[in-house]
Amino acid sequence: MTGAPSSCADLRIALFSGNYNYVRDGANQALNRLVGYLLRQGAAVRVYAPVVEEPAFPPTGDLVGVPSFAIPTRAEYRIPLGLFGRVKADLAAFAPNVVHVSSPDPAAHRAVSWARGHGLPVLASVHTRFETYLRYYNLAALEPVMVAMLRRFYRRCDALVAPSESMAQVLREQRMNYDIDIWSRGVDREIFHPGRRDMAWRQGLGVADDEVVIGFFSRLVMEKGLDVFSDAIDELNRRGVKHRVLVVGDGPAREWFAGRLPQALFTGFLGGGELARAVASMDVLFFPSVTETFGNVTLEAMACRLPVVVSEATGSESLVDHGRSGRMIRPGAIRQFADALQGYVENPALRAEHGAAGEARSLDFSWDRINQTVADTYLRLIRQRASRG
C-alpha cells in the first residue's frame, strides 16, 4: 500500500482482546460486530485473544490464540500473557498498519510496545470501568492504584474510543487521554422490538397477565449490582407492592442471587430471539449496575418498549432521559430505587408512556454508522502518524 489510507479497504488492523468469544458479554459482541463490519468494507483484520476448547460462540474473522491463564477467583475468565514466539511472528507477518487494544492486560501492554517500536498508531477501546470492580471484592481502597495503572496504559495509546459521552468525560477527568472519540453501541431492531412480547410464554412461567414483571438480564456477577437489586426488591416486598421478578442470564453469582430472591423466576442463559422474547415480555427493566460504560442491556430493553430504572452512572446517562423514558437513581439508594419501581408497578399509563419514549430513543442507534466511526478513527490516526514522519 502506498500513500495515505483513504478507505476501509486500506486498513490492516491487529485487534487484541482479553475475551473475544470464550465468554459472551456485551463488550466482545460489540468487537465481533465491529470486525464483521470492517471485513465487509474490505479491511484486513487479525484478532489476537485467548482461546478455549468450547467458546461461547464462533469468532468473527481470523482468531490467533494467545497464551493465557485462568483468573483464580473467576476461572471462566482468562488473562492473556505477552507476545511470545509464534504470536509475535504471526503479528509481524500480518504487518498491520494500526493496532487496536480492548483491555489493559499484559498482552495488550506488549502490543502497545510492539506498535510503538514499529511506528504504528494504537487505538484503545474502553468497554468497562475496571476500577469500579474492586468495590465488589472489598478492595475499594485500591481504586486509586488501579486508576493510576489504567492511566499509564491509556496514555501510551494514540487515542481512545468510549461507548458514551458520559464515559468519555470520566476518562478526561481521570486524565487517561485527551483524544477520545465515541464508539457507541447499536441495537438489532430485527431482534429487539415490542412485537416479541409473548403473553403465552409468560403464562408458561406461571405469570398472570395482570402481574407486573420487574426484569433483569445480564451475566450474573456481583458487579452488575445484584446486591442493590435484591435490597430494592426486599423493600418492595415490605411495602406490599405486588410484582414478579424475572431474571434472565447465568453466571457464577446465580446461586447467590437465587438464594437472595427465592420467589424470582430464573430462565438461565437465553440468546437471540429467545432473549428478545423474554425482555419484551417484561414490564420494566431494573438494572442498577455502575460498571457499564454504555449499557447494552438498557438499550435493548428500551428497544422493546420497556421503561427502565437504572443507576446514575456512565452509559445510562447517555441513554436514559430521566422522567421521560425511565428513572436514574443515585447508586445504592435502595429506597429511591424502590420508589421508582413502585411508581411503574402501580401506574400502567406511566409504564406505557416512558416505554414508548425509550423505544423512540433506541431508533437513533444504527450499528453500521456506529462502527464506521471506529474505522474513521483508524484512518485518522494512520494519517496523523504518517504526517509526523
UniProtKB/TrEMBL annotation:
Gene3D superfamilies: Glycogen Phosphorylase B (3.40.50.2000). This is Glycosyltransferase family 1 protein. SUPFAM superfamilies: UDP-Glycosyltransferase/glycogen phosphorylase. PANTHER family: SULFOQUINOVOSYL TRANSFERASE SQD2 (PTHR45947:SF3). The lineage of its organism: Bacteria, Pseudomonadati, Pseudomonadota, Alphaproteobacteria, Sphingomonadales. Residues 25-190 form the Glycosyltransferase subfamily 4-like N-terminal domain. Signal peptide: none annotated. GO terms for molecular function: glycosyltransferase activity. Keywords: Transferase. The keyword Repressor does not apply. Coiled coil: none annotated. It comes from Novosphingobium aerophilum. CDD domains: GT4-like (cd03814).
